[in-house]
Specification:
By secondary structure, the protein is an alpha+beta fold. 29% of the residues lie in helices and 12% in strands. A three-stranded antiparallel sheet has the order 1-2-3. Strand 1 and strand 2 form a beta hairpin. The protein is elongated. The two termini are 19 Å apart.
């Protein structure tokens, strides 16, 4: 049986933590940063977790990550 392929777009966007939760990058930090406050930009640096309602869908895209 050949190995299952992961969805490459999902593999580039999501990483699985050691605890099993999935981390993702936040939005709104790529461009038009001059009008955003320093505090807002600093808080956008943090990685955020994927919501519980979406984890099953992402795990199906990343078959060997669980």
């Amino acid at each position: 049986m050949p190995k299952m392929k992961s969805k490459r777009g999902a593999a580039k966007r999501f990483k699985v933590r050691g605890s099993g939760s999935i981390k993702r990058a936040g939005a709104y930090k790529r461009h038009i940063l001059t009008k955003k406050s320093t505090k807002r930009k600093r808080q956008m640096r943090r990685r955020s977790g994927v919501d519980q309602t979406n984890t099953a869908a992402i795990r199906s895209m990343l078959p060997y990550s669980s």
